[in-house]
C-alpha cells in the first residue's frame, strides 16, 4: 500500500513540471537566441568605443576582446577614458546613452568637463534605476557630437569586467527588456523548482527535500545578488550594507546547501563512512567561512575571493563524489546528475573567464545562473524518483512495525494469560481447572487473531463429544458446524496436525452461507483425550503459520499451567491436612480462624470457637494401645465432621484436641452445636478388635467480642472453658467467661 501524502506530493510535482517547465524552457531558448543575435544588428544603433587606461596598476587592464576593463579586486579605483564619435543628431532622433553592464561596482563616476552626473553603485541603486535594473545608464547631452571623451572611475572588491557601450536610448531599452526577460525566466524556473521542493517536503517528509528547498532558496538569493536585483527589492535591501560580502556569502551558502542535497541524495549509508561525516564537515566548514565573511573576519577582498573560489571547488568535488557513489549504487538519474554537475562546472568556468575579461558578457552574467537552474531541475527529477523508494521503504518499515507490534501484543497476551491462569485456577476445583483454562485461552485468542469465534471439540472413548465455544452465543452454530464435519475434525485430532485452510461444509439446515468465512484447525491434547480447536474468521484472509503456531502455543500453555495448578492444589491440600484424621491441621485451621475473624470484624457478623477434647484419651492408649487411640481419633473426627454446617471449619489442634470455627453463629447457637456434637460422640459406637470403646468429649465455647481484632483472646476464653469442663467432671459443655 503506497503512502498517500508522498504519492500526492509526487503527483503534484509531476503536474507542475509537466505544465510549467516546457513553457519556461521555450522562454529560456528564445531569450538566449535573441541575446546572442544582438551583435549582428547593432550597426545603426551604436557607436564604437575605444578604451584608454589611465592607471599603471597591472591588476586593472583591458579585456581580451578590447571591449571592457577588468577592475582590480583590492578596492582601488580603476581610471580610464572612453573615446567615441557621436554623429550629428536630428531633433526626432533618440538620445544617445552611455551604458555599462551591471556588475558588482561599489562606485562608478563619469565626467566630461562640467558634465558630472551622479555617481552610481551596484549595491545602492538610484531611484530612477527601477525595480529590476539591467545596466548602469547615463543619457548623454543632446548637444554632444563629434569626437567625445568621457573619464570613468570605477571601484570594486569583486572580480568584474566593466563593458561600456554608447547606444541609442531606444535600443538600450530593448536590450534591457531582453536581458530582463531572461533573468525573470531564470527566477521563474527556480521558484517553480522551489515550489516542487515544498510540495515534496510536506508530502514525503524527507530530509533530502528540505536540503533541496534550501538549495533552491540560496540559488535564488545568489541569482538576485548577481543581477543586482537583491538590492532593489524592499525585503532584501538590508544586503546593501554588506557590499561585495553579500555576494560572497550567497555563493558560500549555495555551496553548502549543494553539498547537503548531494549527501542526502546519495544517502548516509553505514557502509560508506565518508558519506556520514565528510560532506557534513565540508558543508559546516563552508558555512563557517560564510559567517566569517558576514562579520568581516576574512582579511582583505582578494583573500575573500580566493577563499570563495576554493570553497566552490571543494563543494563541486564533494557533490560529484556523492553523486558518483549514488550512481555506482544504481541510483535513478545518477548519471544525469553527474552531467549536471559537469555542466555547472563548465558554466562556472565560463563565468570566471568572463569576469576576468576572457569571455563574453552573456556567459559572465547568465551562464552560471543557467547552470544552477539546470542542476536544480535534474535534482528535482532525481528526488521525485526517490518517492518510489520512499514508498517501498515506508511499506517495509510499516510491515516491520506491524510485525513487531503483533509480536509484542502476542507476548503481552501470553504473559497476561499466564498471570490470569495462575491467579484464577487455584480457586477452581481440580476437575474444572483445565476447561476454565481453555475458556480463558480462547477468550484471549479472539481479539489477538481477529477471530469471529473459536470452538474446541473433544472426543473421548465411550463418551459423547464435548464442545466449548467462545463467544458463548455462537455455541449452537458451532455445534451444528462441527457435527456436520465430525469425521474431518476427528481425523485431524487423531493425526495431531495443523490445517491452515480447513474446508468445512455448512450444516444441511443452514443453507448457503450469507457471510464468507475462513477456517483453520489446531490439534488439542487434554487430560481427557484428544481434540481439535476450530478457528473461524470472517472474510477470505487465510490463517498464517505464525497464527496457528500462536494458537498451538496457547494450547500447550493451558496444559502446562493446568497440570501445575492441579499439582499445586494437591500439594497445598496435603500440606493443610492432618495425616491421621484427614481434617485440617493446626496451621491450616489457624489460618482459617484468622480469615474468618477478619471477615467478622469487617461485616459485624458473630463468630464462635469450639475447643473439643477427648476425655480419658491417655487411658484408652494405656488400655488398648496407641493404635486404638489413633482409631478413636479418626472416629471422633468423623463424628465432628458430621456436625459441621456450611462454612464451618474443623481442624486437629494437637493430640486429642480439636477446634471448630463457626462463622455467623453467636454464643448461644454455638452452645447448641457443642451440645449436639457432645451427645453424638457419647452415642457413637466405636469398636476395637471386637470390643466397644466408650468415647466422650469436653467442649469449651467462646464468641468473638466487638472490641477484639485478633483471635487470641477468644481462643483463651475457649481454652479456659475447656479446662474448666475437664476439671468439672468431663463430658460437658462450658461457655467462656
From TrEMBL:
The keyword GTP-binding does not apply. The keyword Iron does not apply. Its EC number is 2.7.7.65. Coiled coil: none annotated. Residues 605-737 form the GGDEF domain. Keywords: Membrane, Transmembrane, Transmembrane helix. Signal peptide: none annotated. CDD domains: GGDEF. PANTHER family: DIGUANYLATE CYCLASE DGCC-RELATED, REGULATORY COMPONENTS OF SENSORY TRANSDUCTION SYSTEM. This is diguanylate cyclase. It comes from Pseudoxanthomonas gei.
Amino acid at each position: 500500500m503506497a503512502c498517500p501524502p508522498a504519492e500526492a506530493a509526487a503527483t503534484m510535482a509531476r503536474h507542475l513540471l509537466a505544465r510549467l517547465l516546457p513553457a519556461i524552457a521555450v522562454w529560456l531558448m528564445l531569450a538566449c537566441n535573441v541575446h546572442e543575435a544582438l551583435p549582428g544588428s547593432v550597426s545603426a544603433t551604436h557607436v564604437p568605443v575605444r578604451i584608454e587606461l589611465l592607471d599603471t596598476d597591472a591588476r586593472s587592464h583591458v579585456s581580451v576582446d578590447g571591449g571592457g576593463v577588468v577592475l582590480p579586486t583590492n578596492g582601488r579605483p580603476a581610471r580610464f577614458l572612453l573615446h567615441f564619435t557621436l554623429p550629428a543628431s536630428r531633433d526626432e532622433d533618440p538620445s544617445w546613452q552611455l551604458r555599462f553592464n551591471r556588475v558588482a561596482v561599489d562606485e562608478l563616476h563619469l565626467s566630461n568637463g562640467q558634465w558630472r552626473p551622479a555617481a552610481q553603485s551596484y549595491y545602492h541603486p538610484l531611484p530612477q534605476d527601477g525595480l529590476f535594473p539591467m545596466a548602469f545608464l547615463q543619457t548623454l547631452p543632446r548637444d554632444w557630437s563629434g569626437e567625445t571623451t568621457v573619464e570613468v572611475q570605477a571601484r570594486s572588491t569583486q572580480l568584474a569586467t566593466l563593458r561600456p557601450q554608447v547606444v541609442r536610448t531606444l535600443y538600450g531599452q530593448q536590450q534591457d527588456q531582453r536581458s530582463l526577460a531572461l533573468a525573470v525566466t531564470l527566477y521563474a524556473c527556480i521558484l517553480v523548482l522551489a515550489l516542487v521542493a515544498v510540495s515534496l517536503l510536506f508530502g514525503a517528509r524527507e530530509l533530502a527535500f528540505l536540503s533541496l528547498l534550501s538549495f533552491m532558496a540560496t540559488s535564488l538569493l545568489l541569482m538576485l545578488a548577481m543581477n543586482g536585483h537583491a538590492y532593489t527589492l524592499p525585503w532584501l535591501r538590508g544586503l546593501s550594507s554588506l557590499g561585495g560580502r553579500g555576494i560572497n556569502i550567497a555563493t558560500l551558502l549555495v555551496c553548502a546547501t549543494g553539498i547537503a542535497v548531494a549527501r542526502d541524495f546519495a544517502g548516509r549509508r553505514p557502509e560508506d563512512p565518508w558519506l556520514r561525516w565528510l560532506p557534513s564537515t565540508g558543508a559546516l566548514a563552508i558555512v563557517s567561512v560564510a559567517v566569517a565573511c558576514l562579520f568581516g573576519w576574512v582579511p582583505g577582498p582578494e583573500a575573500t575571493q580566493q577563499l570563495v573560489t576554493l570553497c566552490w571547488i571543494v563543494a563541486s568535488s564533494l557533490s560529484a563524489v556523492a553523486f558518483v557513489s549514488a550512481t555506482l549504487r544504481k541510483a535513478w538519474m545518477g548519471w544525469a546528475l553527474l552531467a549536471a554537475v559537469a555542466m555547472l562546472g563548465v558554466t562556472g568556468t565560463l563565468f570566471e573567464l568572463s569576469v576576468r575579461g576572457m569571455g563574453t558578457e552573456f556567459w559572465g552574467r547568465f551562464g552560471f545562473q543557467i547552470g544552477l537552474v539546470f542542476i536544480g531541475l535534474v535534482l528535482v527529477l532525481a528526488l521525485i524518483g526517490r518517492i518510489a523508494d520512499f514508498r517501498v521503504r515506508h511499506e517495509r518499515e510499516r510491515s516491520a512495525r506491524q510485525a513487531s507490534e503483533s509480536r509484542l501484543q502476542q507476548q503481552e497476551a501470553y504473559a497476561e494469560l499466564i498471570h490470569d491462569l495462575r491467579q484464577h485456577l487455584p480457586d477452581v476445583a481440580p476437575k474444572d481447572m483445565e476447561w476454565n483454562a481453555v475458556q480463558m485461552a480462547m477468550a484471549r485468542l479472539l481479539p489477538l487473531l481477529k477471530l469471529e469465534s473459536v470452538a474446541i471439540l473433544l472426543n473421548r472413548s465411550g463418551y459423547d463429544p464435548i464442545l466449548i465455544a467462545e463467544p458463548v452465543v455462537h455455541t449452537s452454530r458451532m455445534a451444528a458446524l462441527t457435527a456436520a464435519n465430525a469425521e474431518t475434525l476427528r481425523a485431524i485430532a487423531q493425526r495431531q496436525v495443523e490445517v491452515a485452510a480447513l474446508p468445512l461444509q455448512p450444516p444441511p439446515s443452514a443453507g448457503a452461507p450469507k457471510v464468507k468465512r475462513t477456517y483453520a484447525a489446531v490439534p488439542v491434547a487434554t487430560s481427557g483425550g484428544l481434540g481439535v480447536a476450530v478457528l473461524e474468521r470472517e472474510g477470505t484472509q487465510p490463517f498464517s503459520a505464525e497464527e496457528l503456531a500462536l494458537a498451538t502455543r496457547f494450547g500447550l500453555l493451558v496444559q502446562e499451567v493446568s497440570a501445575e495448578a492441579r499439582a499445586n492444589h494437591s500439594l497445598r491440600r496435603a500440606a493443610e491436612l492432618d495425616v491421621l484424621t484427614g481434617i485440617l491441621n493446626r496451621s491450616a485451621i489457624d489460618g482459617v480462624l484468622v480469615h474468618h475473624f477478619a471477615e467478622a470484624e469487617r461485616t459485624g457478623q458473630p463468630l464462635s470457637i469450639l475447643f473439643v477434647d477427648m476425655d480419658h484419651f491417655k487411658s484408652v492408649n494405656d488400655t488398648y494401645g496407641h493404635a486404638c487411640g489413633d482409631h478413636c481419633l479418626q472416629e471422633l473426627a468423623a463424628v465432628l465432621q458430621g456436625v459441621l454446617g456450611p462454612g464451618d471449619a474443623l481442624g486437629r489442634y494437637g493430640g486429642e484436641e480439636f477446634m471448630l470455627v463457626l462463622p455467623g453463629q453467636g454464643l448461644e447457637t454455638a452452645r447448641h452445636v457443642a451440645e449436639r456434637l457432645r451427645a453424638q460422640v457419647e452415642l457413637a459406637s466405636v469398636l476395637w478388635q471386637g470390643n466397644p470403646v466408650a468415647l466422650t468429649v469436653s467442649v469449651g465455647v467462646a464468641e468473638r467480642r466487638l472490641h477484639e481484632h485478633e483471635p487470641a483472646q477468644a481462643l483463651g476464653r475457649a481454652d479456659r472453658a475447656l479446662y474448666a469442663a475437664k476439671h468439672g467432671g468431663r463430658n460437658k459443655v462450658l461457655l467462656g467467661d
